[in-house]
Each structure stands twice: as structure tokens, then as C-alpha cells.
Specification:
58% of the residues lie in helices and 0% in strands. With 92 residues, the protein is mostly helical.
Length: 92
Amino acid sequence: MAVFRRPELEKDNPTAPQMYVGPRRRRALLREALLSPAPRQGDMAETLQALAVAAERFVARVPPSKKLQEERSALLEAIIQTQRLLSGEPLP
């Protein structure tokens, strides 16, 4: 008996297709999103602050490498822009 591998079902496969979401499920998700309360402005600022702090911790823990330098630089730039936005400083 031959065992057929299906790479699209393997965990952490970047070439795997996106999971299919049918029209009924899509409408249910939309209904749920419309009925949920909208976030307040303070909530958004708190969320951005928490995200910036978590990203800073992540960047501090990950050792610098030449392969990941571009992604690391992009993340650091995003952290800087988030901090400027939260401080009220105008973005360049």
C-alpha cells in the first residue's frame, strides 16, 4: 500500500493554498463583525502600544543575521512610526 503525501496539508507549508471559506460562512463572519462593538480610539492606542512593545522585545531577542536584516530593519521602522504616531508627532 502506497502512502501519498499531500504537502498542501503539512504544517507550516508556505505553498499551501488558503483554506476555503464558503459563502454562508463568509456571510456569518460579516454578520458577526457588524454586530460586534466598534473599538474606541483609546483601545486602538493601547493595542498599538502593546504591539510596539512586543515587537521591540522580539527584535531585542532575535540575534542579528545577514539573512534577516531586511525584515529586521522593516520591523524597526514600523516600531518607530508607531511610536511617533502614538506620541502625536507628525509622520515624515
